[in-house]
Design a protein that fits this description.
alpha/beta, Quinone Oxidoreductase, Chain A, domain 1, Rossmann fold, 2 domains, seven-stranded mixed beta sheet, six-stranded parallel beta sheet
Length: 330
């Protein structure tokens, strides 16, 4: 295939990194056995860090960022995929060490791809994106722990963000009583519309955690880490669980072992990047069954490809609500 297509390219410079919107060709793509025409990508928190250079997400240069994408196969040497197949990719180091979704084309290892579930358009798949897929992995972990709607309230931190919005919607759909924690009180009505029972201020979890606090939650999904996660752990009911998938506040965990030893609390670490394909397929199958697509659309905004750098600044600053999809130009 000849011709060029638009792409964001991150290069290493003496002063850090340089992000440019350029025209590149197929020769600029990395090795792989499947080439995909990218229809949509999404803006995730990690993408914001990569585009702004606020954290060392990109570890190989030059590189096209974008940790996920959805589109159609145009050529394949992989046994499972043929031209015309619709596929979705999340993680596997794409957008970090292998060029990703912020380009008109992507060439990747076919073992990283999941066939797009029936009922999803490529746009809807990226409205879900890595954030929504991660939220589903968190919900699955709490379910596998044995939590049910009868167990008690489930707290979701960062509730107005991408992971949080999908998690609130999923848990509510499954019958759980969901409490959303956010630092943006103006998003109260939005979160209630997704199914949250109550909204609380994230400041409740910002102070130094006690070894044990009053039991409040049957379980939780946490995107923050740091003091937020430490406080959460101290408040989980006996035998409860927390699914931790983010570090928006901090990578530190200034907590005590008391919740684990005295209350039998379990902390699940949720990795969406290298999760095995079978778990990915299960998560996407569950999303097809348990995610209200009308609510998904209500939490989704579409941003122009050329406005990605500005949107990246916004998501890193915590000013983006829900999910952001990016239509990739032809």
């Amino acid at each position: 295939m000849s011709g060029t297509f638009p792409a964001y390219l991150i290069s290493k410079t003496d002063s850090g990194q340089l992000t440019e919107l350029k025209e590149i060709s197929m020769d600029n793509l990395m090795d792989g056995d499947v080439t995909v025409k990218v229809d949509y990508s999404a803006l995730n928190y990690k993408d914001g860090l990569a585009l702004t250079g606020k954290a060392p997400v990109v570890r190989r240069f030059p590189l096209v960022p974008g940790i996920d994408f959805a589109g159609s196969v145009i050529s394949s040497d992989h046994a499972e995929f043929q031209p015309g197949d619709r596929v979705v990719l999340n993680g596997f180091g794409v957008g970090e060490v292998h060029s990703g979704g912020f380009a008109g084309m992507a060439r990747v290892n076919g073992d990283w791809l999941v066939s797009l579930p029936q009922g999803f358009t490529t746009r809807q798949a990226m409205a879900v994106g890595t954030a929504g897929y991660t939220a589903m992995l968190c919900v699955m972990a709490l379910e596998q722990h044995g939590l049910t709607p009868e167990s008690g309230e489930i707290l979701v931190t960062g509730a107005a963000g991408g992971v949080g919005s999908v998690a609130v919607s999923l848990l509510s759909h499954l019958g759980f009583q969901v409490i959303g924690a956010t630092g943006r009180p103006a998003e109260r009505d939005y979160l209630l519309s997704l199914g949250a029972k109550e909204i609380i201020d994230r400041k409740e979890f910002s102070g130094k955690a006690r070894p044990l606090s009053k039991e409040r939650w049957a379980g939780a999904i946490d995107v923050a880490g740091g003091n937020t996660l430490a406080n959460l752990l101290s408040q989980i009911n006996y035998g409860g669980a927390v699914a931790a998938c983010g570090l928006a506040d901090s990578m530190d965990l200034p907590a005590s072992v008391a919740p684990f030893i005295l209350r039998g609390v379990t902390l699940y670490g949720i990795d969406s990047v290298m999760a095995p394909l079978e778990k990915r397929r299960q998560a996407w199958d569950r999303l097809g069954k348990d995610l209200d697509l009308d609510l998904l659309e209500a939490m989704t905004v579409e941003t122009r490809f050329e406005d990605l750098p500005k949107a990246a600044e916004e998501i890193v600053a915590g000013r983006v609500r829900g999910r952001t999809v990016i239509k990739i130009p032809d």
